[in-house]
Structure formats: structure tokens, C-alpha cells
């Protein structure tokens, strides 16, 4: 049984249980949206853990996660918890701070991976190589707090110039609408990338050459992979 317990007794203080074979069992909570916890790969992993008789798996119910106070959530020894669209990350962080289960992945760090600007700062902080990039906050530009210049084949933000081809990424990592802009000598235009819809995940727009200016974007030198799809 992999569904979260619904009665008050099962939601009480956590403790190591024991299996019918006498082995000490650790309770592992899985806190994520239903599409993730009920996916075929996840259920295969959880089933293997449960068959070992060393773990009691507690999958948190999605409705409970979204609607109920953290004091009603099951208490567990260990917690696997990860963000996807619609998941209340701050609420889950509050649960961890209050009940202190052993965390198998860092929830605070998941805030960082949702913000592409913070991800790039982490790369710099740890000396991880990355392509040249420029972060443009168009609200600052509109208030006259920063200089932005655009030509067909380049952009300039303050004193940083980036030549096409470059890829434009929204700051919000949940937004997968990334656009690639090409210079005139490569045919110009823009390729729009997006989450796969039916059999399509991109479209080429030959007449689009001006960048978007409705928020904060990262502009990164586009590295050719000669047709290889690199994630």
C-alpha cells in the first residue's frame, strides 16, 4: 500500500516501526505532486524499497499537500520531496523545519533551480564553466537605470555586448519558452523552443529578430552542437 495514511493515528509522531520479520523499518515520506509520485518509474523505485522490508513508504496525498495544514501531514523518519508545477514548496519547507525529518534532497536549493539567474550565480561561485551570458532586466531599462541597445546581430546591456547567435531564456525556470536568435549571415530569424506539443518542440520564425522585452531574460552565447540534442 503506497498511499498516504488518512487517519489521525497514522499521522502522529514518527517512530521506527518493525516488519513481520522483526526488522526495524524506517518510514520514508514521498512529498510531491500526484503526477510525479504515481509515475511508473517512481512506483517501481518505491515498490523495490518496500519489498526490502526495511522501509515503510508513505506517499503524501496531493489534496492533503495542497489544502491541509502541515500539522496534519504524516510524520516520517526520512523525506523525499521535490518541486514541480503547482507544488507548494514554501509549505513543504515549513514542514521540514517544524518536524525535521532526514532530507534526501535539499528543499532550499530547489528555490535556486527555479531561478535561472541564481543558477548561473551558483555556477560562477563554484567555478563551473558556462557560456558567456548577459542578464537584462527590462524594468530597470524602462526606468532609465540601465542602458540597452539592440542591433540586428547583437545586443548591448550596459557595457556588455553579445553577438548573435544567442539564446534567450526567461528568468523563471518553469518557463520553457527559450528563443534562439540568428545573425543575418546565418539566415537571421528566430527559433522558438517550447515544451513538446504533439510531435513539435520548436518552430522557426524568419521574421522575428527583435528580442522580448517584457521581464528579465538571460542571453547566452549559443553553442552549436551540430544537430545533437543536448539537455
From TrEMBL:
Span of domain VIP1 N-terminal: 27-115
Gene Ontology cellular-component terms listed: cytoplasm
Chain spans, region Disordered: 1-21
Stated family: Belongs to the histidine acid phosphatase family. VIP1 subfamily.
Enzyme class name: transferase
Source domain of life: Eukaryota
Name listed for the protein in its UniProt record: diphosphoinositol-pentakisphosphate 1-kinase
Enzyme Commission number(s): 2.7.4.24
Native source organism of the sequence: Toxoplasma gondii ARI
Gene3D superfamilies xrefs: ATP-grasp fold, B domain
PANTHER family cross-referenced by the UniProt entry: DIPHOSPHOINOSITOL PENTAKISPHOSPHATE KINASE (PTHR12750), INOSITOL HEXAKISPHOSPHATE AND DIPHOSPHOINOSITOL-PENTAKISPHOSPHATE KINASE (PTHR12750:SF9)
Keywords, ordered alphabetically: ATP-binding, Cytoplasm, Kinase, Nucleotide-binding, Transferase
MF (Gene Ontology): 5-diphosphoinositol pentakisphosphate 1-kinase activity; ATP binding; inositol hexakisphosphate 1-kinase activity
Biased composition range(s): Basic and acidic residues: 1-13
GO terms (BP aspect): inositol metabolic process; inositol phosphate biosynthetic process
Localization terms from the record: Cytoplasm
Keyword Transferase: yes
Keyword Kinase: yes
Catalytic activity: 1D-myo-inositol hexakisphosphate + ATP = 1-diphospho-1D-myo-inositol 2,3,4,5,6-pentakisphosphate + ADP; 5-diphospho-1D-myo-inositol 1,2,3,4,6-pentakisphosphate + ATP + H(+) = 1,5-bis(diphospho)-1D-myo-inositol 2,3,4,6-tetrakisphosphate + ADP
Main location: cytoplasm
Pfam families from the UniProt entry: PPIP5K2_N (PF18086)
Amino acid at each position: 500500500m503506497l498511499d498516504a495514511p488518512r487517519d489521525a493515528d497514522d499521522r502522529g509522531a514518527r517512530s521506527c516501526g518493525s516488519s513481520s520479520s522483526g526488522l526495524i523499518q524506517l518510514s520514508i515520506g514521498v512529498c510531491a505532486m500526484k503526477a510525479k509520485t504515481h509515475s511508473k518509474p517512481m512506483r517501481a523505485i518505491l515498490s523495490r524499497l518496500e519489498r526490502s522490508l526495511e522501509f515503510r513508504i508513505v506517499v503524501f496525498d496531493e489534496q492533503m499537500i495542497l489544502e491541509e495544514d502541515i500539522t496534519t501531514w504524516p510524520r516520517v523518519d526520512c523525506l523525499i520531496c521535490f518541486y514541480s508545477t503547482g507544488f507548494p514548496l514554501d509549505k513543504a519547507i515549513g514542514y521540514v523545519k517544524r518536524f525535521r525529518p532526514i532530507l534526501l534532497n535539499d528543499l532550499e536549493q530547489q528555490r535556486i533551480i527555479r531561478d535561472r539567474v541564481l543558477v548561473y550565480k551558483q555556477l560562477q561561485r563554484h567555478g563551473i564553466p558556462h557560456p558567456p551570458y548577459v542578464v537584462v532586466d527590462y524594468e530597470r531599462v524602462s526606468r532609465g537605470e540601465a542602458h540597452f541597445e539592440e542591433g540586428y546581430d547583437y545586443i548591448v546591456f550596459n557595457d556588455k555586448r553579445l553577438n548573435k547567435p544567442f539564446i534567450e531564456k526567461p528568468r523563471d525556470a518553469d518557463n520553457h519558452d527559450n528563443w534562439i536568435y540568428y545573425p543575418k549571415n546565418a539566415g537571421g530569424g528566430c527559433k522558438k523552443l517550447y515544451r513538446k506539443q504533439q510531435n513539435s518542440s520548436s518552430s522557426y520564425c524568419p521574421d522575428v529578430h527583435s528580442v522580448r522585452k517584457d521581464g528579465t531574460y538571460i542571453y547566452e552565447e549559443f553553442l552549436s552542437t551540430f544537430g545533437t540534442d543536448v539537455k
